[in-house]
Amino acid sequence: MEKRIGLVSILILHNDAVQTVNAVLSQYADSIDARLGLPMRHRNISLIAIVVEGDTDTIGALTGKLGKISGVKVKSVLTSYKEDEDGDTSHTTKT
Hints:
Layout: E1 3-12, H1 18-27, E2 32-40, E3 45-54, H2 56-67, E4 72-83, E5 89-91
Antiparallel strand pairs: 1-3, 1-4, 2-3, 4-5
């Protein structure tokens, strides 16, 4: 299965969802290359941006679980970068 690289943005609207979000992210730690968290306490929201690398099924499962958490909004974007099981890479462009 092909690996992809992408970004996932997570907006947490309710502080009681933070622990659940962190638990899901821990389950997918092998697919997360980087994480940036910004707690905006004065606005009572938190933002998390993660860089992911994995197959589309795994990334989709991660974002799907996050999106089912009450008070959480999730958006993702995947690059056209692809890596197959042999490590061969390609960059396709959309016109």
